[in-house]
Amino acid sequence: MTAENPTGPLGGHLDDDDYPAYTMGRAAEMLGTTPGFLRAIGEARLITPLRSEGGHRRYSRYQLRIAARARELVDQGTPVEAACRIVILEDQLEEAQRLNAEYRAAAASSGPPPAA
Fold first, then answer.
1. Closest CA to 37 of 71, 69, 85
2. Quick one: which of 25, 27, 32 has its CA closest to 63?
């Protein structure tokens, strides 16, 4: 088995943050919360778990990081709906900042605009 061509039961998904590897029970255990909390943030559309062939919710590591941030806010007294909105806005801000940095880098590498 090599890093370039992984084989085995996970088919190379060990490093895939978006692979839905965790059941609801395992995800709740890892977050130190209840399955009800995961259902609540799903209903608030913070995360949308994928479903197994049997219809069971499956969560990725990326979704667990999002859920963990929401849980931090809820533990501080923020209502679930508000916590979900805050996490969504934080994620949008991070993406906007990333894009802005890319645009600035592209503009800087293209040199000054031609003189008129």
1. 71
2. 27
Q: DSSP labels for 35-73? A: HHHHHHHHHTTS---EE-TTS-EEE-HHHHHHHHHHHHH
- Give residue limits of the domains in the chain: 22-109
Q: Under CATH, what is the fold of the domain 22-109? A: Multidrug-efflux Transporter Regulator; Chain: A; Domain 2 (1.10.1660)
Q: Tokens 């062939």, residue?
A: 53
State how far Cα 43 lies from the chain centre: 16
CA distances from 48 to 44, 69, 101 (A): 9, 15, 29
Q: Are 42 and 48 spatial neighbours (Cβ–Cβ below 8 Å)?
A: yes
Contact (CB, 8 A) for 15 and 52: no
pLDDT digits (tens, 9 = 90+) for 22-67: 999 999 999 999 999 999 999 999 999 999 889 999 999 999 999 9
Q: What pTM does this model have?
A: 0.74
